[in-house]
Amino acid sequence: MPKNKSHSGTSKRVKVTGSGKLMREKAGKRHLLEKKSSKLTRRLSGTTEVAKNDVPRLKKLLGL
């Protein structure tokens, strides 16, 4: 059997931690930042854990 290819788009968006958790960037901090409050843009910075319901689907895309 040939090897399965991991989804390259997902691998760029989601990182796997050492303990196996999936981390993602928060949405909404790419453009139109002038009209968004500083409070909002600070809240959108950083990474968060992927929702529990999405983990099996993303692991399949990443080939884990």
From TrEMBL:
The cross-references to HAMAP family, in alphabetical order and at most eight, read:
Ribosomal_bL35
- Keyword terms: Ribonucleoprotein, Ribosomal protein
Q: List, as start-end ranges, the regions of compositional bias called Basic residues.
A: 1-15
In the record, biological process GO terms are: translation
Specify whether Nucleus is a keyword of the entry.
no
* Domain of life of the source: Bacteria
Q: Which Gene3D superfamilies match?
A: 4.10.410.60
Its taxonomic placement starts with: Bacteria, Bacillati, Actinomycetota, Actinomycetes, Pseudonocardiales
Protein encoded by which gene? rpmI
A GO CC annotation given for this chain: cytosolic large ribosomal subunit
Enumerate the GO terms in the molecular function aspect.
structural constituent of ribosome
Name the protein family: Belongs to the bacterial ribosomal protein bL35 family.
The UniProt entry, under InterPro entries, shows: Ribosomal_bL35, Ribosomal_bL35-like, Ribosomal_bL35_sf
Record protein name field:
Large ribosomal subunit protein bL35
Q: Outline the segment boundaries, as ranges, of region: Disordered.
A: 1-29
